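Pilot study result, target chain (276 residues):
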Amino acid sequence: MSKGPALFSDIGKKAKDLLTKDYSCDHKFSISTYSDAGVALTSTAVKKGGLSTGDVAAQYKYKNTLIDVKVDTESNISTTLTVLEILPSTKTIASFKLPNYNSGKLEVQYFHDHATFTTAVALNKYPAVDLSATMGTPSIVFGAEASYETTSGSFIKYNAGFSVTKPDSSASIILADKGDTIRASYVHHLDQLKRSSAVGEITRRFSTNENTFTVGGSCAVDPLTVVKAKLNNHGKLGALLQHELKPKSVLTISGEFDTKALEKHPRFGLVLALKP
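Predicted structure:
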């Protein structure tokens, strides 16, 4: 693939991951195994409130083709087929979910040294078409995305954004919700391995004059343990502790607390992922 600009979906992703990834108020357990034939199997059980769910996922990779299949407790079967280089510098992704026969989707991504393009089409009678494009370099990216609905003949979504990435920091601004929301974020890495970082994000919704400001960060306590925390101006405080029990096997304990509603009980989550 090209070493050009990132996809539009990657603009602001570093800040989003720092503020949302691995935070959970559910209880989740997953175990993965690998067969000699190259098939990876993952079984997951999740308890959310009083409801328990689960799924079994299989992944198989052969040369430039990746197949993912997932079956959940409601007998839904989700399948994703990813193929690299059907055409030069492209990635093709086909997905569908059974028994929902109208859930199929075909996406093609094209990578160039100075631009990327993606097109996604729903595989049904009245498909929606998603388009996105970026221009620039790995360090500076300008981009836009839109979604066109064929049933109404109108654009139901259009966003724009740009990002600047340096070895120790990343900044981005995204204009979303048809221009109604602007989101700016900044991430600064505190060490060369990027295991300790600080992040700030501010979001303004013009139609309601609502502002949301969130600060957070992660800190590597030792080579196996990471602590993360975040707090926004509405008083929502989140924190997590993540410890690598053995290579690729991780225990995550997280919690959320509303500092402006002390009568509410804090929520806690526990995630255990075991891999060979």
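One observation from the pilot: The CA atoms of residues 212 and 234 lie 7 Å apart. A full batch analysis is planned for the follow-on phase.
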